[in-house]
From TrEMBL:
It comes from the Eukaryota. Its EC number is 2.5.1.60. This is Geranylgeranyl transferase type-2 subunit alpha. Catalyzes the transfer of a geranyl-geranyl moiety from geranyl-geranyl pyrophosphate to cysteines occuring in specific C-terminal amino acid sequences. One of its GO terms (molecular function) is Rab geranylgeranyltransferase activity. Belongs to the protein prenyltransferase subunit alpha family. The keyword Transferase applies. GO terms for biological process: prenylation. SUPFAM superfamilies: Protein prenylyltransferase. It comes from Anopheles braziliensis.
Amino acid sequence: SAEEAARKKKAQQEKVKAYRAAMSAVLAKKAADSYDSEMLELTTAMLSNNPDIATLWNLRRTCILQRRNEAPSDSPELQQLFDKDLEFTELCLRVNPKSYCAWHHRCWILENAPSANWQQEVDLCTKYLKLDERNFHCWDYRRYVVAKAEVPPEKELAFCTEKIEKNFSNYSSWHYRSQLLPILYPNVDDPSRPISEEKLKEELELVLTAAFTDPSDSSAWFYQRWLLGYAQPELDLASFRLDSKTKLAVVSFTKPIQLTGGDYQLTVSGCDNCNEITKWKPFGQSEQGSYTTTWVLQDNLTLLDDHSKDAKVTFVTANGGKHELLLQRPSPEVAVGLKKPKFGYEFGAAIVEVLKAQLISCEELLEFEPDSKWTLLTAALLMKAIDPRAHYATIRSHLAKLESVDSMRQGYYRDLASKWAIERQLEQWIEAGDLTAEIDLSGLDLTIIHYGPYLATANGLNLARNRLTDR
């Protein structure tokens, strides 16, 4: 009613008036450099109603630090001061359990107090997560206090499992699990992979149960993508080409670097004028001093015949890491080399069988829910992990369907299809053995070019009949 609306408006105006008066008083005391008990009381009253005013928390910390500096280090009143403020943050978190400011202030108190009971904080998190198991602020805080309390990762993994079994739709718990598993079950045979094959098999079975309990929930699907995914490559040489006839050398890396500004070493055996690192320039429109994956050198470059058999590029990083790339000599004027990129994990036979079983489950679910976006995407990811060549046509079909089923993410699916199409062509080109041959990427409906650092050795690149645009 109009009367009720008027009453609410008046109450809101009174709150605004009170807030402005209190803030004016606080700022006046700040200007006077007066961080006394009244300042603490003012901030207490205001933060109790709205714990998300960062300025007030900053002033409150100044008040506490001033008292800490004035009191003897062994004073019991000092510990009481911090304990009291710890209790105050609990009051504020009841007002807003997801207050960034209140959680941050709690961390600050514990770091600056004479002593801190870290296990008590772990127990507090357990209590809070019983009330709301998806409060990501509390999960983040839990990781912080668990590290301080030195809680064994085995115990935390059990806690994660308990929360997941209670509610599969718990992004924070799945995420925490992905951080704990590499610590407890590392892959000693392949450090680039997060966990061992044996544990991976167990996790795939767990995530399948979660995913098919509610196919529309994305949390378990995301976790499965982490299990099947591939981490970003470490810094390494990707490719190299030198042509003494055109007086041009090109070197590419797996990650953008500032080659001439960092403490790097780059040497090319059997080449005059290649080893002065300051002469290398960033490729394209990049300015000197910028980070890029590809660097070029234009100079009077000469390849020495007596180094044709063992010619190589050596790259040494700032921390002493050494990377080498063997070179081929397809002609007297040209030297090229390339490290085959890792397009994904190569799983053992036992894991592949699990993936095949999960693919069958996805296909069965698609018979009942043909437009389930998570099932379509997961089926495509599973096929790529099992045998990308054999399933290529079906993978492209699934991604094309996702463009219409999930049109808000149409660009993502097109870019993903582009990436996988380039992987297929690049792999075939590398297997052909001629690293200077033209790479044919025509007619693939590409929207983006992936793996650019690996294309630098080719004589040409055919990009006709694609959907590439400037971005």
